[in-house]
# Entry
Amino acid sequence: MSTQKKSIYEASCADDYDASSMPVEKARTFIAKFLEPVHDVLRVALRDALDRVLAEDLISPINVPAHTNSAMDGWAIRADDLNVEGESILTEIGTALAGRPFSGRLNAGECVRIMTGAVVPQGADTIVMQERAQVNGSKITFAPGQKQGQYIRHAGEDIKLGSVGLAKGSLIGPAALGLIASLGISEITVYRPLRVAFFSTGDELRPPGAPLGEGEIYDSNHYTLYGMLKRMGCDLMDMGTVRDDPALLESAFQQASEVADVIITSGGVSVGEADYVKTILNKLGEVVFWKIAMKPGRPLAYGKIGSAHFFGLPGNPVSAMVTFLQFVRHALLALMGVQPVPVIPVLKAKCLSNLKKAPGRTEFQRGILSQDANGEWMVKATGEQGSGILTSMVNANCFIILSEQSGNIEAGNVVDVQVMIS
Ligand code: AMP
Ligand code: MG
# Structure
């Protein structure tokens, strides 16, 4: 899309837009329209690239593997020397070890003892594994049935010299880190980490370690948010807990928008909440408030405050996590420059519990996925599904996703299950 951004208000005035019952997919598509990845890059040493996003196509300066080599311990031979039927007897003329090649050349009737990873000597085109050979001094007898070219790993069969070894936009996990190392590259260009400011809102919130007064609760969202953001490799600006006070909230939003790419808050977005949150946000930026047609996690705010993206998550602990995992995580990956943003696997599983579900909203019930004796997937609910039951998130390893239209589910039916990413 063009860099000339559509106004969030303008977009939210579309005909089919219903802010009081926004379907999950529509909210995702809406948010995606406004996401422009970070541009700034850093040069980093390989180890520091873990969990960063590659900002360049990495062109391989070598073939991987660099040399044609053996995939087995055995002997390197010429397939032409094999008898079509029966055994073949060849003369061993030397040894090739990994990192210590055999320098000569194989002629007719000869073979070379070879170990896994050793360069295949000139003249040889086939490996016979040692289990298929018998040694009698330098005379080696090979069993019949060997195939030309077997157990050879060809130079460049993983990555060819000059080809793209790893594409721009790759999220660098352990496998990618190893792959970059296998290219011999020790420094790469990555996008700078996203700066994410976050705070909880609510007069009732207290930090762990402090005593609880009447009607107060501990600020758990702060910690779930911290954990989820930290896992994503974001550069965190932890702004603590902010009271439901217009002046304090305004200054927190103002301060955050000056430095952060993304601002995430929890609480204060429900209907009936003091309207000053809306008033402040509308004064500082462009923010839309939705009631998403989902459970848990109904209220959600999204918008821009200056150049910062804003996600206002609901206060209930399960709702805050579910809205983060279903909307914010994907948006953050896109902003980090990840291309394409990986989909989270959804699979079908037999449901072992009766599930209560009213049509009208997509539900993300918390489930425990396992396999039966035949390896078939099955899932049971974690139990009580209220939006304040944080134990349901701790015990779950998946979301049971029930579509908007779906009603009650009886045990034995097949349901969609999304693996939970922590
Ligand atoms: P709110 O969205 O602010 O109306 O909050 C909805 C519910 O979530 C209320 O019961 C709050 O007390 C609770 N809540 C809000 N923020 C947090 C938080 N940071 N940690 C735990 N519970 C919270
Ligand atoms: Mg509140």
